[in-house]
Amino acid sequence: MDRETVLVAIDAGSTKVATVVGEVTPMGDVNVIGYGIAPLAGMKKGMVANIEQTVASISSSIEKAERLSGYKIGSAFVNLGGSHISSQNSRGVVAVSGSRREVSREDVARAMEAARAVQVPANRQVVHVVARGYIVDGQDGIKDPVGMSAVRLEVETHIVAGATTSIQNLTKCVTNSGVQIDEVVVSSLAAAEATLTDTEKDLGVVIADIGGGTTDIAVFTDGAVSHTAVLPVGGINVTNDVAIGLRTSLNLAEEIKVKNGTANVAEVQPEELLNVSMLGDAGGQTIQRRRLAEIIEARMRELYDMIRAEIERSGHAGPLPAGIVLTGGGAKLAGVTELARDVLEMPVRVAGPEGVGGLMDQLASPAFSTSLGLLLWGAHHPASDLSGYAAASEGDAGVGRLMGWLRGLFPG
Ligand SMILES: Nc1ncnc2c1ncn2[C@@H]1O[C@H](COP(=O)(O)OP(=O)(O)OP(=O)(O)O)[C@@H](O)[C@H]1O
Ligand SMILES: [Mg+2]
């Protein structure tokens, strides 16, 4: 890149959609030049539930972002969520070709092809094939094997797949909003781009993007992703519990949660009182704040237990050395850090989007880590060929898959 390139991210979530326009400088720095945020009611648990509502919200956020940036949006990186997302690790092995027995790009491509030949049911499609590292004649931990003398080349990959119909519905909503798709990126990998340090990824870390309807998880070990999953629980579940427990409307429950809620019962004194308006009771009623905290803590504890189960499923024994990084709007809840430390017994930090400059105003919040991470993903994973995107967005999964595959050839 020898001049500034403009990239766009569309982060459609269970509560809001954010469209962000960013400039990538020749040095690789990303600066936001405009954004648009709109409430979104058409997505449930990270998946499209109402096409019309989703298109209207996405279009409105695109319009705002275009007005602020003065840039006409043609294509965008788009996040994919929902608990249909699954992951597995796969190894590909090939004999190094050519008389010189030197690993070439073609050998790497063949090894990746061998690794990606995993069984994926007919109603699912591969979204990412990420190279975790290479093994050259039994020597592991190689990040770039091209040019090395060898007989046998192995690649360790992380493969993410999702339900074809869910991906098609998302694609439809974006293209119906008049924008082509550069690439579909699972939310957790986008969030990781904006929050995790290289050291954390090397040591071993888990990112949890606690959104409205879902919690997106990715485990990194030895510098690369080793497990991804989406849990169908988020801040909306906490709000629902508060509404049921205190017999209030959902709007009021949300307000009470944000203003007075905490996931850490221990920090609340028994004598702290709150006045809440119950349903069908105009006068309101006084409750102990501790009662509110108990409701919230129970749900967050359950979420952390589910995260712990995912870490175990990733094959990692014991706590991750760099711990857990919490992001997403749900990570703004008071007491999340203390409770996570208690349940997961590892280091905890709450992170917002880092590594992006420019017009950040409202975006400097954990709720926008995935949105800005999508921009960083675009800047860090330049496509070697963008020509196939139109076809990909028309529902041809193969082209999008090929792009993901090309990008996955080299880690980093
Ligand atoms: N200050 C706060 N305290 C507690 N919770 C908060 C706060 N701010 C936002 N939230 C919660 O964050 C959630 C929304 O987070 P976010 O914007 O990351 O979700 P989303 O991206 O729309 O959804 P998803 O990623 O699940 O599809 C809501 O449930 C909201 O209650
Ligand atoms: Mg989100």
Write up what this structure looks like:
- This protein is of the alpha/beta class.
- Among the domains are: 86-163 and 399-407, 2-Layer Sandwich (Dna Ligase, domain 1); 235-294, Nucleotidyltransferase, domain 5 (2-Layer Sandwich), CATH 3.30.420.
- It is built from 12 helices and 19 strands.
- A 6-stranded mixed β-sheet has the order 11-6-1-2-3-19, with helices on both faces. A 5-stranded mixed β-sheet has the order 14-13-12-17-18, sandwiched between helices.
- A hairpin with a 2-residue loop joins strand 4 and strand 5 (47-48).
- Helix 1 packs across helix 3, helix 4 (187-195) packs across helix 10 (369-380) and helix 6 (235-246) runs antiparallel to helix 8.
- Mean pLDDT is 91; it is low at 384-406 and 408-412.
- The structure holds adenosine-5'-triphosphate (ATP) and magnesium ion.
- Adenosine-5'-triphosphate binds at residues 13-16, 46, 81, 211-214, 234-236, 239, 254, 257-258, 328-330, 332-333, 367.
In short:
This protein has 412 residues and is of the alpha/beta class. Helices cover 35% and strands 30% of the residues.
Report strand order across the widest sheet: 11-6-1-2-3-19
Distance between the termini: 17 Å
- Quickly give the CATH architecture of the domain at 86-163 and 399-407: 2-Layer Sandwich
- Counting helices, strands and paired strands, the structural category is alpha/beta
Largest sheet composition: 6 strands, mixed
